[in-house]
UniProtKB/TrEMBL annotation:
This is Uncharacterized protein. Residues 13-44 are annotated as: Disordered. It comes from Colletotrichum noveboracense. Residues 19-32 have a biased composition (Low complexity).
Amino acid sequence: FVRGPWNEFNADFLIPRSGPTAAAGEGPAGIPEPDKPRTAQAARDALNSRKPKFLVYHPDKTGWTPEDHHVRFIVTLVADNMLQNLWYESEWKKRGLDIAKAAYEVLIFLKATLFVDPSPPSYSA
């Protein structure tokens, strides 16, 4: 239930920042995470107001910020799963912010599994 939003996030946000055209030293692992409460609130607001910026099938992402891409992931994840009856509109109205925060955590987990830390913590003395 996350494959579609994840594939889009990966293709439109992560890959362009890690490919040969990325600036020196830039990469998905080096991009700071957007503020979780602000991003989750923006996603909730986008879904509640039916913002076309995040809900259209193929949005124009020119000039999008990292937070915009994170919001799009959350919005598409929640909207797609409401269509599949994983979440219901009544549940979204009661716990929308909690659901958006949980979707954000799913995204952070997926990003963490994609990239290997070149300098992991060492446990040697």
